[in-house]
Amino acid sequence: MAILNGMRVVEGSAFVAIPLAGMTLAQMGADVIRFDRLEGGLDARRWPVAPNGRSLFWAGLNKGKRSVAVDMKSPEGRELITRIVTAPGEDAGLFLTNLRVRGWMDYETLSRHRADLVMLTLTGDRHGRAAVDYTVNPSLGFPDATGPEGSTDPVAHVLPAWDCIAGNMAVAGLLAAERARLRTGRGQQVEIALKDVAAAMLGNLGILGETELTGQSRPKAGNALYGAYGQDFVCACGRRVMVVGLTQRQWRGLLDVTGTAEEMDALGRRLGRDLSQEGERWHARHEITAILEPWFAARKVADFADAFDKAGVAWSVFRDFRTAMEEDPDLSTENPLFTRIDQPGIGELLTPQSPFAFSAARRADPAPAPQLGQHTEEVLADVAGLSSGEIGRLFDKGVVGGPVPAA
Fold first, then answer.
1. What is the pTM (predicted TM-score) of this model?
2. Is residue 70 in some structural domain?
3. Are 393 and 403 in contact (CB under 8 A)?
């Protein structure tokens, strides 16, 4: 039995963070019901897409959910969503959204129908303005600290980091409010802003303090690891590796395998720096790299891979996505995280289940994402409590819809 079996969460969402939050809960066993417009939500055709045009983005972030398609412009459609969100049940009345609509899909309105409603809302910024990762990052300074040393062009990151972090914080916020409800019987509204997630991490990682106290912005450092030693090297086989000497064990392992301990000791004496300290290694990074570069340039990855692993060196080969799938068994069914499932409308895909492994609960196999409207009829019956006649009338009027074929 999955750890959240019996919990019901309703999701009205788009983009990354809230769909990720709903999927995370679904993969731990919660019954997550997603509602969308009849023609599909904002993510229905979002890239990346399969060769037939089906959205791999949708398939990836909606695994294991139930899907309801509703005409949200109609009063009947809005009433249906309200009934689904506020349906009775001790483990129900939990709502995730980043599509808040004042006067309808907001906490004040919905809690009139269920006083113990727990509703988590993600906004772009604390003022309610729109924001996504690609606007938050530039506004807070990260692209200006990213890129080759000495360059001036900002570099935006391809990973939507704040969306990913906000999605998992949304899970934590919803479960915390649900736990409070179990203890007190009271529901509540939980709000989180994407930009605040990023701003908080600026403070948590010490970047704000560093900037405030030094009066300087962190400079670009290429692939170097800020504040310690980490650098990329090109090997004799043409492959590039990343090597990190963050901890003392990692640093000593790197020196032992490369046979450069005496040179590093001499370098430290010459520079007046104790290279056993990670911050001192940062200041001496260019000189350290000059010593190590010839060693890597004279060797293929296969020549040192086993020795690095045995010595506890933190390192990796640089790969693109395709090469990673071809070479790394962690991106295959050798890793218990993954299995192959049939995603309707797309075909068989390598698919992750939840990364959590609970000792007292089974980690369930991943379920495919639903087709749009696949569960409309069953949700109207078992959650909204409608009769078959009422459901048929709603389908006939076009208030709700069933599965929509690919365009």
1. 0.95
2. yes
3. no
